TrEMBL record:
The chain crosses the membrane at residues 12-29, 35-53, 58-79, 109-127, 134-152, 187-206. Residues 241-482 form the Sulfatase N-terminal domain. This is Phosphoethanolamine transferase. Coiled coil: none annotated. It comes from Bombella pollinis.
Length: 556
């Protein structure tokens, strides 16, 4: 009389365990942007819990912890970012330990407490439902193997797979950059195994993907590319003596005073420079992507949302600067060999002199994610350049106001804005960095023109936390500040005004044409006209959208 109710309870717990697993799997699959055959795979994936619950109580509990943890992690990403895209899987796979630790510190304690409660509930239910049934475990294992085999052999849409045919990565074994097809290859996990299983396997495969480069004999060299973009005409005129490009990070225009922000005085130096007529700002400007590894290459090369192979086939801005006699320097607080940053590291290698946390051609060092450490290295080089007759093209890549924001501030920023959130304090520090660099340049290379542009914007969820790369985040994560300063800056602002898209916005994609003009290149009017007709961006789902037709709300 006692065993029957217990058996009935165990069956109810087992059904609840399986039902919750199925519902969560389907929910996650439906929030994976490119996933196919969602329901069919989620039903087939029931072989996973069948196998787990048939392995005996102890082993089942051990296996259920990572299983539940993966589900919880996927749920958190969906709640936070609304969708899980393949580009997001690439970003997670490419995050190193330091970045991961920084990101984890930005998560409030509440999600960790909820995750602990859920894990405790899963362990309890697993302990009650699990039994040692070797035949069922074998059936579950075979079912998993067949499901995964069938799914991974389904053909991929050529257009979707083609988006990831340019996959620049660093081969740590041979110390070289290669273009490998594993981004497209591992896309099968994400598309054909929808849900947390496919996402997790895709991230793991991407993380281990650099091992596949061992078999590639042809590395990407830093020899100048042969082809020049068709917008560039033969001949040259006299360009600016020195050109400084500062690339910001996660910088939202709406938190800058010159863009109408009044809650905090986040940009006192820039405001003062603008009042003195020493700086101008581009209104209604937006980035060309909402993730760094897409946005920065589009600033330095002719890679566009429509042509992603241009980074491998056409001369980039560093090569073009060198062709016109400029000495080139890249100094930045981002490393350049992780899965996520490899395209940026590859481009930086075209510079004659490079100073990154992981690589330096000079007897100088900088610290990862520490913009303050860039200043002494930059000052050292500027003092040397003061004595040289040649012109210079200098790229400074900041970590800027990337999360975690508080780590990007100093006591001076917190003292200046004691009632502000850490994001505004981080913007205050970016303002200090730009002003400091401008002062250095004026003292050492007075005949210089400077362009500051963030790689993308940021969506603030609180004064101390935010995000980008959100599938349905709309335009806010694209709205960026762009400033011109130094010699002839007003004329370049006028040129930028003339290069606005036909919808009235200024696209980051047009910055390269202004930089080329600074270098003395002549540009074909018809090419510039064609570039202004479309306002395209490369979104975090790997798709190309018109800026005014992005998924989600428009920025105010």
């Amino acid at each position: 009389m006692i065993k029957q109710p217990r058996r009935h309870t165990k069956r109810l717990i087992t059904l609840a365990w399986l039902g919750l697993y199925l519902l969560l799997s389907l929910f996650i699959a439906n929030n994976c942007e490119l996933a196919q055959h969602r329901l069919a795979f989620c039903l087939a994936s029931l072989f996973v819990p069948l196998c787990v619950l048939s392995c005996g109580r102890f082993l089942a509990c051990c296996l259920s912890v990572p299983l539940a943890s993966l589900i919880i992690a996927n749920l958190y990403i969906i709640i936070h970012y609304h969708k899980i895209t393949y580009d997001m899987c690439m970003a997670i796979a490419g995050t190193d330990r330091a970045d991961a630790a920084t990101m984890l510190r930005t998560i409030p304690i509440t999600p960790f407490l909820l995750a602990s409660l859920l894990l405790g509930g899963v362990l309890y239910a697993t302990a009650r439902a699990a039994r040692f049934r070797p035949l069922h475990a074998l059936i579950g294992f075979i079912g998993c193997a067949l499901t995964f085999t069938i799914a991974l052999h389904r053909p991929l849409n050529r257009d979707v797979a083609g988006h990831y045919n340019v996959a620049i990565t660093y081969d740590a074994l041979h110390h070289r950059y290669v273009n490998s097809p594993y981004f497209a290859k591992n896309l099968a996990f994400y598309i054909n195994l929808p849900g947390f299983i496919g996402n997790s396997l895709a991230i793991f495969a991407l993380k281990q993907g650099y091992q596949q480069t061992k078999s590639y004999r042809h590395s990407l060299t830093f020899a100048p590319h042969e082809h020049i973009n068709s917008a560039i005409l033969p001949g040259r005129v006299v360009g600016e003596k020195n050109i400084i490009l500062i690339i910001g990070e996660s910088d939202a225009a709406r938190h800058h005073g010159l863009y109408g922000y009044t809650e905090q005085d986040t940009t006192p130096h820039l405001r003062t420079l603008a009042a003195q007529g020493a700086l101008c700002a581009m209104s209604n400007a937006h980035s060309a992507a909402n993730m760094t590894h897409n946005a920065v290459p589009m600033m330095i090369s002719f890679l566009t949302p429509q042509d992603r192979r241009a980074i491998l086939t056409e001369k980039n801005l560093i090569e073009l600067a060198r062709a016109h006699g400029y000495k080139t320097l890249w100094v930045g607080s981002h490393e350049g060999t992780s899965l996520y940053n490899s395209p940026i590291g590859y481009l930086s290698g075209f510079s004659e002199q490079v100073v990154r946390p992981d690589y330096s051609t000079l007897p100088l060092t900088v610290r990862e994610h520490d913009d303050e450490s860039l200043l002494p290295a930059l000052q050292h080089q500027l003092e040397i350049y003061r004595q040289e007759p040649a012109g210079h093209f200098i790229i400074i890549h900041l970590i800027g106001s990337h999360v975690s924001y508080r780590e990007k501030t100093t006591p001076e920023d917190r003292h200046a804005l004691p009632r502000a959130g850490s994001y505004d304090q981080a913007i205050h520090h970016v303002d200090h960095l730009i002003a400091t660099i401008l002062q250095m340049v004026e003292q050492t290379l007075p005949h210089s023109t400077l362009l500051y542009s963030a790689d993308h914007g940021e969506i603030l969820t609180s004064p101390d936390n935010g995000m980008h790369g959100v599938y349905d985040g709309g335009q806010e994560q694209y709205r960026i500040p762009i400033y011109f300063a130094g010699l002839h800056h007003a004329s370049y602002c006028q040129q930028a005004e003339a290069l606005r898209q036909t919808d009235g916005t200024f696209s980051q994609l047009m910055e390269k044409y202004i930089l080329l003009t600074m270098m003395g290149y002549q540009l074909a009017p018809e090419a510039l006209h064609a570039a202004r007709q479309q306002d395209l961006i490369l979104h975090s789902d790997g798709e190309t959208y018109d800026y005014n037709r992005l998924p989600g709300p428009k920025a105010p």
